[in-house]
Amino acid sequence: MLPPRMKQAITDNPKKLANLIDLINLPTPLREFMGQSQTSRLGCFMRVWSYIKENNLQDPNNKNVVNCDHKLRSILLGKPQVELADLPSLIKLHFPKKTS
Predict the structure, then answer these.
(1) Could you say which DSSP state residue 86 is in?
(2) Most CB contacts within 10 A, which of 19, 46, 48, 58?
(3) In a domain, 9, yes or no
(4) What is the CATH number of the domain that holds 27?
């Protein structure tokens, strides 16, 4: 069951949802990280988040910061640390904007 706010956002702009769930061919760095050639932006974000949790990459002193290992740096522009709030925008850079 979706939260009411999300239902409203999908109803108001179905293209936003399509941009999150449409499968696209991944660029090489993401393909190597994900281990697959196609995924959605949402699927990619969920995989990155689970990788962070599995490998305990959140800073123990500040849970809003991720300490990137070598594998994560390869897809996050080589940054040693990123804010959690910046993750979606950094991942979005790998997904080219569709021209309608």
Answers:
(1) G
(2) 48
(3) no
(4) 1.10.245.10
| Residue range of the domain that includes 40 | 15-94
This prediction has a pTM of 0.74
The C-alpha torsion from 60 through 62 and 65 to 69, rounded to 10°, is -20
Residues comprising the chain, all counted: 100
Q: What is the total count of domains within the chain? A: 1
Model pLDDT for residues 33-79, shown as the tens digit of each residue:
888 888 888 888 889 999 999 999 999 999 999 999 999 998 888 88
Distance of CA 13 to the CA centre of its chain: 20
Within-domain flag for 99: no
Q: Give the ranges where the chain is alpha helix by DSSP (H).
A: 4-12, 14-21, 28-34, 41-54, 70-73, 87-92
10 found inside a domain: no
Would strands 65-67 and 81-83 be described as parallel, antiparallel, or unpaired?
Answer: antiparallel
